Amino acid sequence: MLHTAMSDGNDAVYAILVIYFFVILCSSVLSFWMNNSTTTLRLGPLSVVGDRVNNLTQSYLGAGTGLGFLVFFFTMCSSLFSGYTVSGIPAEAYGRGWIAIRWILAGVPIYGAFLLLTPRLHALGKSRGYLSIIEFIFDRYAVSSSPAVPHALRLISLFCLQLPVFTYLITQFTGIGAEIPVYTKGEITGLGALLTAAIILCFLSILGGLRGVAYTDVIQGIALVVGSFVFFCVQHVNLGGMGMVARVTRSAEFAEADPAKFASFNTVPRESGGWSLASLASFVLKVTIAATMFPHLVQRLFVAKNTTVIRVGFSTMNATFFFVQFASMISGWVAAAYFVETPPPNAIFASVAGVVRDANTTGQFASALMMSAAVCAFMSTADSCMIAFGTMWLKDFFLPYVSPGASQQTQVVFAKTMGIIGLAVGVLLGVQSILATPPWNLSNLFSLQAATPIHVAPSVWLGLHWRGLRGEAVLAGMLLGLGTTLGMAFDPSYNVKLKFGLEENAEGWAPSLIGCAVNVATTIIIGLALEASPSLLPVSSALPAFSRPLDIAAEFGEKLGSEASPLFWGVFAVLFALMIPFYRAEDFGKQDEYVGEVPSWVFTSLFICGLLTIWIAIGYAYFWRDYTLARVPSPYPVHPDDVNRQDSGDVPAHKTKSVGMSEVSEAPPAPVAPA
Fold first, then answer.
1. Distance between start and end Cα atoms, the chain
2. pLDDT in tens, 243-297
3. 397, 437, 377: which is closest to 20 by C-alpha?
4. What does the DSSP assignment read for 78-92?
5. What is the structure's pLDDT at 629?
6. What's the CA gap between 422 and 429, in Å, rounded?
7. With 80 as the cut, is the pLDDT of residue 240 above it?
């Protein structure tokens, strides 16, 4: 059953990768031209119109006038389906069996969660020029008892949102450094693959900006979808597919070879403990909440060309989890059944692709597509994180605290510099990972990256819809929740999986989720108290510098919008809960019956997740509400070089005024509860 002999057959993958790299480099050059031109470029029968806007920063970090449907669809998909999709998930499916479906169960609800946020965030982004979620947080809580409150919220949020950027970068570089050497049988080293990818990413982001990243995401997304489809077919024809997995993993030979793995493929998850029902529920819930704060994803909400792009995009792309990630999981399950006697190397996906390559000439081409899709997945998220990293440090640190009057050219240079620094740190950590024995676990890294951004979520989720919520309540909740999470996560007596780079207690619950509950409870309790008795902490007359106080009710009305409909969220909550097989209490830890080629609990959870996918699509069609807001000028002084580079509505009232960290003015009235 074990096959180890490999023949040379890497020419196909080398040829495809050369074409791929050439195409994305051309795409970055085209993006550079579009960012700096308003003319029309004719390429034979095709015409490309320049999309430069007057604001250079918006051209580079905001893709000019915004992203259309096709680009938005693929850039969001590609940014989510990163290195863990083709490296981390197969490894988890290989080692842990059917519980790997947690990635689908956690992925689909993210789009539902975005429905609560996106209508208002997108409108605010178009109105105020937001490119970072932290900009919203600062303006939303500008009216507080002290200017120090919104400043503290901004800096703590900036700290919290660094973790997903660097964990994403590490997973990309670790994945490409682990998978490529295994597939090429050492012809390309892990370090060589990593550095080559880093150089291409650096060129792409510096030259093309967000537009270049998004355009290459279209290429990478198409390659990923095609590669997933090819593998879905090839694994069935060449390796026996799911039928072989079901047959082998239920056999006595499999049970004798690896009893623990046999249990993971044939039993209902236990109620508590590692890889249990509790850990499944904890993972799904924390990822659903935290992923809505990931900087590279939120940035795309602000730069979508219009609401139709988002509505159609989100209502369709949530189904891609069933296609792309399920195909990736199959590679892990197939490997578990195929490599029974001797485990393959750490790179499960590349090992399976190697088996396909060695089968025949068709297999060489199919495996080349599979590995090319894997490289696309690695590259697509890394470039997005570079742009998001530079954007955050520009918008949330450099402009407000270092150089408020910086020219647009200086802003772009700073954003590029910070992107390169972020990339360099990611490369260094990636090298450490691939040199480690074994390399760092990618699914563990992805699980850990939710630990801090989850504490930014209450400030946004509640702040978008609760007019009376004060910044003091949000700050207290964020500090207590973050302190709870970090205290539990780094306590080895509580976090039983600390040595594995995970955060999980003995019952299976994540400290970050427990900390988030503390965060939300604290925020609500203090928020209600301050709403009922504002005199407890009177609003200061001093507003923080460069703030544009945001009154939610004045912008969106006193009532909740249809995106917060109790009907939608009631059905969503029921389907979300039913995805977790808590109803199988009598069968926890016991052998399960099969429905077709999967255990019944897996079939039921995926079926309900499919219903949730449909319900989310209905939500974007019928519960979305469009908002049209007036343009709000930039809060920063205009540099003399940029007087003629301002778009309509961008010129602030204080063109050359020097403003300190806080300025005293007549503050707007304190937020009050809706009537």
1. 71
2. 999 999 999 999 998 888 999 999 999 988 888 999 999 999 999 999 999 998 9
3. 377
4. HHHS-HIIIIIHHHH
5. 94
6. 11
7. yes
Residue 542, SS3 per DSSP: strand
Report how far residue 185's alpha carbon sits from residue 385's, in angstroms, rounded to the nearest whole number: 30
Residue holding tokens 């676990």?
441
Distance CA 439, CA 449 (A): 17
Q: In whole angstroms, how far apart are CA 577 and each of 151, 169, 186, 573?
A: 37, 32, 46, 6
The phi, psi pair for 308, rounded to 5°, reads -60, -40
Most confident of 168-177, 222-231, 621-630: 621-630
Q: What percent of the chain has pLDDT over 90?
A: 48
Please choose, from the candidates 26, 7, 6, 23, the residue with its C-alpha nearest in 3D space to the C-alpha of residue 15: 23
Is residue 143 within 8 A of residue 671, CB to CB? The reply is yes
How far apart, in whole angstroms, are the C-alpha atoms of residue 61 and residue 383?
12
199-203, 397-401, 616-620: least confident range = 199-203
pLDDT score recorded for residue 318: 83
Sign of CA dihedral 400, 403, 407, 410: negative
| CA distance linking residue 122 with residue 142, whole number of Å | 20
* Of the candidates 399, 347, 353, the residue with the CA atom closest to the CA atom of residue 372: 353
Beta bridge partners of 591: 267
Complete DSSP assignment for 559-575: SPPGGG-HHHHHHHHHH
pLDDT, position 8: 57
CA 110 to CA 113: how far, in whole Å?
5
Specify the 3-state DSSP secondary structure of 599: strand
Q: Are 575 and 612 in contact (CB under 8 A)?
A: yes
CA distances from 468 to 98, 122, 146, 154, 674 (A): 45, 22, 17, 19, 7
User: Which candidate, 456, 410, 402, 384, places its Cα nearest to that of 138?
Assistant: 456
Side chain identity, residue 573 = A
The torsion defined by the Cα of 347, 323, 305 and 315, in degrees rounded to 10, comes to: -140
Residues in the chain, overall count: 675
8 Å CB contact between 444 and 501: yes
Judge if the upstream peptide bond of residue 147 is cis by omega within 30 degrees of 0. no
Contact 239, 326 (CB under 8 A): no
